[in-house]
What we know:
By secondary structure, the chain is of the alpha/beta class. The chain has three domains: 119 residues, Rossmann fold, CATH 3.40.50; 227 residues, Rossmann fold; 98 residues, ANL, C-terminal domain (GMP Synthetase, Chain A, domain 3, 2-Layer Sandwich). Helix content is 30%, strand content 25%. The protein has a nine-stranded mixed β-sheet. α1 crosses α2, α2 crosses α3 and α7 crosses α8. The longest helix has 17 residues. The C terminus is likely disordered. InterPro entries: AMP-bd_C, AMP-bd_C_sf, AMP-dep_synth/lig_dom, ANL_N_sf. Belongs to the ATP-dependent AMP-binding enzyme family.
Amino acid sequence: MSAQNLIDCLMQQAEQSPQTALFTAGLRTVSFAEMNRQTNQLANALKSLGVGPQDRVALLSKSQIDSALLIFACMKIGAVGMPINWRFSVDEVRFVLEDSDAHVLIIDTEFLDRIDARSTSSGLRIFTTDGADPEHQRLDSWLAAFSDQLPATTLEAHRAAIHIYSSGTTGQPKGVVLTHKSLLSACQVTTEAWGLEPHSVLGHVVPIFHIAGLLILLFPVYMGCRCVAFRDFKPASFLAALSNQSISHVLLVPAMINFLLAEPADTDLDFSQLKLIAYGGSPITEPVLQAAMQRFNCDFSQIYGLTEVAGVVTNLTPEDHRKAAGLLRSGGRPLPRTELRIVDPVTLTELEDGQVGEVWIRSDRNFHEYWQKPEATQEVYPEGRDALGGWFRSGDAGYLLNGYLFLSDRIKDMIISGAENIYPAELENTLMKHPAIADGAIIGVPDPVWGESVKACVVLRPGTTLSEDELINFMREQVAHFKCPKSVEFLTSLPRTESGKLLKRQLRAPYWAGQERAIN
């Protein structure tokens, strides 16, 4: 496709395949022609409110179709779509709206309780996607009054297209600004890596406020294929949908794969049309991955990425998954137009193959800036920007070996015990091999002699028992003794985000309270 941006893609698909279904969500289906027409209407409606180039328009919704409407309507007038995490508190939502200076909010009625008087005091205009709310007009009835002709505008590849806020687990949410060029490149390299074709059917079950969920909205428009969207992830019904809705490709986070595997096997379910399960977003253990490969009998592809690199950096291909078990712990090789370096996080010198350091990334997908945070932007681009995107400090620890990236942990999660660097992810992979453990994490806690010592936090499977000594001995049989847990805490659950990422800061907090030095 010769498109210069995603609006070109949408318009070309609407012209070539106008009646082809683009999105299906429950009983609602929208064709390419309908999406093109309705986004024209919404773009003109937003213009009538004074929304112009680079203005932010906020979205607080689970609806993939309404989200796509807003994102593409914003692109058509050069404005910037801004999906907000619907798990944010009232204070966090208010901060995001104020920080971005958004003057329009599209929202599901179930989230209206996240908006208080202070959020609307600056004249915020609110439209709902559903229901009947006496104070706010519905989106569909509002846009119906406007022209369905494309508004005149000029899109520039280097201008902002999407604005996504972090989860805010370590302070105020931070806005990541991605350009039209970044998003188009992400569509190009990922759809090729996954083997998406116009007849493919893409399943969408990841929240839209995550870069992964956002990309899944864009891929069908870029490729011209259909997307079956799910408002919520319900394991049993999702398995049934994989069987009866001809879904060929789907992206899942590891926590979702765990939930699917926990469902009883059903011989009536047919996954023969399922070609590929892509996964990423958080670490996956080898036992879980092996079980999933056996259960679904399809190709698997791991994507490593960050919001700051439009979600995609490396890919562990289906062929890699079949080559050798050792590769299953790798994040894969760099995608096209992507370069990696491993750098000592203290001295900033480049390290050799096999040495663990911070992963630095240069690609044409690198983010433009942290919104209104020039110092933070400069910190992660220590060498500045260049024509190839600039070298971005990911904050992830890992090493390169034979062209493959192996991730160790977040740099901030590294445990330093007696001057030895210990990366929890390595130990967690071993921890999860114990048959009695359902979930587990490794953290560093204060130690008066070693500075930090290793602690395991585990959740046992129902009906099993395991003592602290038994687990420590199990670990000592498989990894170097200096890395092994010195203590174990048994919990009923581990704190995680909606995408399944472990909130280690919450696990560590009780142990570091009152300490002169606390790690985050």
